[in-house]
Structures are given as structure tokens and as C-alpha cells.
Amino acid sequence: MRGCAPFDKGPSRLPYGPPQLSAALTKVKVVAENRRARYEYAIDDVFEAGIVLQGTEVKALRAGEGSIADSYAEVRGGEVWLVNANIPEFSHGNRFNHEPKRPRKLLLKAREISKFHGAIARKGMTLVPLSIFFNDRNRAKVELALAKGKQLHDKRAATKEREWQRDKARLMRDKG
């Protein structure tokens, strides 16, 4: 023990905890993706939210059905709701099957909800769902983004930049 520093007792004595995994690393199965959102909106912050589902909705999502292409989220009464997301009826469901386009409550912390409410009211931002996925604990989650709508010239600039990156990669591949 002579000559050892007091902090040199192994990994259990580290002053910080285990590394936290980001939301992108915990995605196991992506069910629905809003691919158009990154083109239509300038994404500012991305959050992971739980979603309140009925049993037949979970079964339909596990079967790979669902669409969030035209959906959005809104703050109503201190809660966040996912509106216009389409989870079709489960094929083997009975008379207690769910409504396909019903509003679904999203589970977020009160601090995040107040942040959303302030950004929407003051800055004119929008809550856009990017994807619905099952995480490593088999819970259905929604990747939600705080975004601002792009103007037409912004979309053109993004397309031009993407095409330039593609051409640049092609030139480098051909040269090297």
C-alpha cells in the first residue's frame, strides 16, 4: 500500500458514476420514423418521452405498424399530447380495439413540459415527433424534437449542401 495515492483504489472509488448512454444508443427497434421532419424543420433539442398506450396499440406497434408522418405534439393543460399519430387497429383485436388516430399522452418531467410551453409560446417553435421505438427495456418511447419550421430558401440551401457532400464523396472515392 506504500506509495499508492488515496484515489488509486480501483474503479469503485471514481468520483463520477457509470457513463450514461444517449437516447440514440438505447434504441432497439424503431417502429415508425418521421423522415420528413429533418427536412421541414430545423431541429433544436431532442427529448425521449414515454407514451401511454392501450394493449392493442402495443401489439400493433410490435408488429411494425404505425405512422407519425403527419403528427405533432402539443401542450394542453400542463400535459403533452401526441396528436394525429396513426397506429392502425390490431388485426387480431376484438371489440375493445383502439381508435387509430386518438390523441396519446406523452410522459415527460414537469421541467421539460414547462420548457416546451415557454418555447412554443415565446419563440414560435413546434414539437415534432421524430420516431417511435422500443428501448432496451421493451418500453415504447417517442423521440420528440423542439423545432422551428424552415423557410423555402433554407430547404434549398440544405438540398444544395447535401448534394455537394454527395458529389465531394464521389470525387474523393474516384480519386483515391
Architecture overview:
28% of the residues lie in helices and 30% in strands. It has 176 residues and is an alpha+beta fold. It has a single domain (25-175), classed as Small protein B (Small Protein B, Chain: A). The chain has a 7-stranded antiparallel sheet. The N and C termini lie far apart (55 Å). GO terms for molecular function: RNA binding.
Summarize the structure.
Helix content is 28%, strand content 30%.
Key terms for this structure?
SsrA-bd_prot_CS, Small Protein B, Chain: A, cytoplasm, 176 residues, seven-stranded antiparallel β-sheet, alpha+beta
CATH architecture verdict: Beta Barrel
The whole-number mean of residue pLDDT values reads 82
Distance, first to last CA: 55 Å
What coarse outline follows from CA principal-axis ratios?
A: globular
Q: Low-confidence parts lasting 5 or more residues at pLDDT below 50?
A: 6-19
GO molecular function, one term: RNA binding
Keywords: Cytoplasm, RNA-binding
Pfam families: SmpB
Region (Disordered): 155-176
